[in-house]
C-alpha cells in the first residue's frame, strides 16, 4: 500500500528512518555490537577470517564497495569486491581463510547465488546480508544477517541499500574487534549508528530544495556524478538511480579521474553532481569543480554542513545537516535518491516499474 505517497519509491525513501531502527534493533546495546545477531557460529568464524571477498550485483554491489573502504580502514584486512556476473565465470584465487560475503536485497539473484555456489567449498565461511528471510541465498549460506527493511516494491532499490550499509558497518565492527578496532572506537561507531533514525528524518527535510533542483535535469540527456573515497560508490549509486528511473544517461567517476578523460565531455549540457568529502580531499574536489565551471558545466554539490562551498552562478549547493563523518555514505545517499525520484516524476516515467527492468533478476 502506497498510502499518502504517489509512488512506492517515495514511500520507501521516506521509510528509511524507521528502517534504520529495524536494522539496528537487537544488534546493538550499551554502546556495543551484539555479535549473536550473526548466529551462534559467527564468533568462531570471525576469529579466523584473514580477508573478505564481497560479491553482489547492482545497488548491492555499490554497498559492497562502501564496505571495502570501511573494512580496510577499520579492520585492516584485505577486502575485495566484485560483481557476481564476473566473479562466477573466472577462476578466482581465494585464500582458504576468506570470508565470502554476499549482499542481496532479494536473496534470489541468479548471479549472486551462482557465485556463492561456485566457491563455498573453498572458503572459511559464507555470510549473506539479505532482506528476505528464507531466501535461497540465506538458506545456502553459513551465516546471515537480515537487513529487516521490509518488502521493497519499487524496482529501484532505496531502503534496501541504506539498510545494507548499516548491516555492513555492524559486520565491520564484528571483524574489527579481532583486529585494530578499539573498544572506544566501537562505542563511537555505535553511538553514530544510534543517531541514524533521527538523522535520516532530518535529511528528508531537504526534499523541497531537491525537488526544485530537479528541474535543471528534466531536459538533460547526460549527467556526471563525482565522489571521492567512500563517497565514490555513493556517486555510483546516485548515477544508477538516475539512469534507471529517469532514463538519463549517468556515469560516476572518482573525482580524481575527471581530468583523465571525462572532462572532455563537460559542457553546459552536462550537469555535474558532486558529493563533497569532508576530509583533506575537499580542496582537490574544489579544483575539479573549477575545471567543470570553466567549461560551462552546471554544478550540483551536496556538501557537509561545515563545508565552505558557496552557491554562485552555475553552482548549486545543498548542505546536509551536521552528522558524524562515519555516516556520510548513508546520509549522502538519501538526497541522491530524492533527486533521481523528482527528475523521473518530471519526466513522467514509470517510477516504480522502469522499462526493461525486473525487481528480482532470477535468470542470467
Ligand atoms: C537497482 C537495483 C538492482 C539490484 C540488483 C541486485 O536499483 O535494484 O541493481 O540491486 O539487481 O539485486 P539484489 O540485491 O536483490 O541481489
TrEMBL record:
<keyword id="KW-0963">Cytoplasm</keyword>
<dbReference type="GO" id="GO:0004360">
    <property type="term" value="F:glutamine-fructose-6-phosphate transaminase (isomerizing) activity"/>
</dbReference>
<comment type="function">
    <text>Catalyzes the first step in hexosamine metabolism, converting fructose-6P into glucosamine-6P using glutamine as a nitrogen source.</text>
</comment>
<keyword id="KW-0315">Glutamine amidotransferase</keyword>
<protein>
    <recommendedName>
        <fullName>Glutamine--fructose-6-phosphate aminotransferase [isomerizing]</fullName>
        <ecNumber>2.6.1.16</ecNumber>
    </recommendedName>
</protein>
<comment type="subunit">
    <text>Homodimer.</text>
</comment>
<dbReference type="GO" id="GO:0097367">
    <property type="term" value="F:carbohydrate derivative binding"/>
</dbReference>
<keyword id="KW-0677">Repeat</keyword>
<dbReference type="GO" id="GO:0006002">
    <property type="term" value="P:fructose 6-phosphate metabolic process"/>
</dbReference>
<dbReference type="GO" id="GO:0006047">
    <property type="term" value="P:UDP-N-acetylglucosamine metabolic process"/>
</dbReference>
<dbReference type="GO" id="GO:0005975">
    <property type="term" value="P:carbohydrate metabolic process"/>
</dbReference>
<feature type="active site" description="For Fru-6P isomerization activity">
    <location>
        <position position="359"/>
    </location>
</feature>
<dbReference type="GO" id="GO:0046349">
    <property type="term" value="P:amino sugar biosynthetic process"/>
</dbReference>
<dbReference type="GO" id="GO:0006487">
    <property type="term" value="P:protein N-linked glycosylation"/>
</dbReference>
<dbReference type="GO" id="GO:0005829">
    <property type="term" value="C:cytosol"/>
</dbReference>
<keyword id="KW-0808">Transferase</keyword>
<feature type="domain" description="SIS">
    <location>
        <begin position="213"/>
        <end position="354"/>
    </location>
</feature>
<keyword id="KW-0032">Aminotransferase</keyword>
<feature type="domain" description="SIS">
    <location>
        <begin position="42"/>
        <end position="181"/>
    </location>
</feature>
